[in-house]
Amino acid sequence: MDKAQDSKEWSIRSLIPENHPRKESLIIREKIVEGLEEGYVAPQGLIAHGRGECFDYLMGEKTQQFAIDAIKASVATLLLAKHPVISVNGNMAALVPKEIVELGKEINAKIEVNLFYRTVEREKAIEKVLREAGADEVLGVGEDASATIPELFSERRRVSPRGILIADVVLLALEDGDRTEALVKMGKKVIAIDLNPLSRTARMASITIVDNVIRAFPLLIKYVRIMKSYSREALEEIVKKYDNKAVLTASLKFIAQRLSEISL
Ligand code: ATP
Ligand code: MG
């Protein structure tokens, strides 16, 4: 797999000039397109990615302090959780498969496939990507998604009885606002990674990391390794002090400030 992955990266890179000013962004796009071609990214995932890119551009394509604050609160919440679950969709599988698996192992979280545009083929394709990235178990595929989230209609409400159904904390990204709201109504803490601080998901979540999953996942792993040694009390204190509204406001102020200072 690693060899195939390397040669894939190599072929993408060979098409993009070394000195292209937006090389990283183009490589990320290629990963999403590849996911589409391999059947695990939905066509709508391309549109979602474009919306994310726009917000990332506005934020300077760097992790800002408000995201770091949210990441630390997320790590404290995940370390305190009894049943943490990482909910995975096509875009996430395309962008951060290894990091999903690594974070899952660090915090002892289940990994569950959950799709807005659910088909068994896509579920299985995502499971394959995650297993190739090192996952031992992937929930929410086929018959495993036999439980339902109340208040949601359509295929999106199907979840694993061993995963999201019993989770106390769910980490998700590129999620729809309705489902985020339904999970919060079920009493779960939702940690959302979402570049758009105005989305319903960003506003409904318990903790919103306004950052790109590409940068947020490695940082989550980094802070888990640091904060693992913290006492329960210290972790609880971080969670208690965290204010998601203040973080969302800070992200909007940052964008406004940045735009007001740009001279063309
Ligand atoms: P909502 O239903 O929550 O209001 P939406 O319908 O506007 O959201 P979707 O298109 O369903 O949004 O989901 C995509 C979301 O994910 C967008 O808010 C987009 O900014 C964000 N997004 C896209 N790519 C990334 C990425 N790489 N990292 C983090 N967030 C991303
Ligand atoms: Mg939506």
From TrEMBL:
Record family assignment: Belongs to the archaeal phosphopantothenate synthetase family.
MF-aspect GO terms: acid-amino acid ligase activity; ATP binding
Domain of life of the native organism: Archaea
A biological-process GO annotation: coenzyme A biosynthetic process
Keyword Ligase: yes
Keyword 4Fe-4S applies: no
Enzyme Commission number, as recorded: 6.3.2.36
Record text on subunit structure and interactions: Homodimer.
Name of a matching Pfam family: PPS_PS
Swiss-Prot/TrEMBL keywords: ATP-binding, Coenzyme A biosynthesis, Ligase, Nucleotide-binding
HAMAP family in alphabetical order: PPS (MF_02224)
Function: Catalyzes the condensation of (R)-4-phosphopantoate and beta-alanine to 4'-phosphopantothenate in the CoA biosynthesis pathway.
Catalytic activity, reaction form: (R)-4-phosphopantoate + beta-alanine + ATP = (R)-4'-phosphopantothenate + AMP + diphosphate + H(+)
Protein's recorded name: 4-phosphopantoate--beta-alanine ligase
